[in-house]
Amino acid sequence: MSKIHIPTPLRQYVGKQSMVEIEAGTVAEAMNGLLMQHPELRRHLYTEEGKLRAFVNLYVNDEDIRYLQKEETAVKEGDNISIVPSIAGGAA
Fold first, then answer.
1. In angstroms, rounded to a whole number, what is the distance separating the alpha carbons of residues 25 and 29?
2. pLDDT at 92 > cutoff 70
């Protein structure tokens, strides 16, 4: 199983868990499995068209999937998938 690490702001939608284990062969399969177990997460991670929101970044073992095969990036037993929301802002 792969482990999906849930950021603190989204834990309220997964029963306050910091990590969810999912059986999957790709990041897309893992995310689909996560959403099947916790459908309330969908609106926070994906657009109405089913695309990953621009401010949501996914990493497999600390590697940004945008520089790999995106959501088709393969995952294997014991891999870690991290959901990392972008944070913007600051003082002028």
1. 6
2. no
- Write down the residue that tokens 């944070």 correspond to: 87
β-bridge pairing 80-85 and 2-5: parallel
Q: Nearest Cα to 70, choosing from 86, 59, 78, 79?
A: 59
Task: Report the CATH fold assignment for 2-85.
Answer: Ubiquitin-like (UB roll) (3.10.20)
What's the pLDDT tens digit per position in 47-83?
Answer: 999 999 999 999 999 999 999 999 999 999 999 999 9
Mean pLDDT (the chain) is: 93
Strand partners, 74: 26
Q: Which residue has the tokens 């995310």?
A: 31
